[in-house]
Fold PDGLE domain-containing protein.
Amino acid sequence: MTPRKWWLIGLGAALLLATLSPLASGSPDGLERVAEDNGFIEKASDAPFQIIADYVFPGVENETLATILAGWFGVLVMFGAVYAIGWIITRSRRSTP
């Protein structure tokens, strides 16, 4: 199987998982859960910038659709960045004697 097919399979799998993201638990987990359990959640400050706050795409009233769109947006941005970095590395290796 060619590397391009693996890239496309990975992209498809990530988009499928993003589509299923509204099924994820709405309960906090990780650090947010620990902060709530230990009573220091109010000391948290907002991130310096937020592109898509709370994983909901802005301007879409249906929350399920907004969550899916936010997931797709994130997947495509990260896929583009990783693909570009891979392309640059591959190109530099080919040009090195």
About this structure: The radius of gyration is 18 Å. The first helix runs from residue 3 to 19.
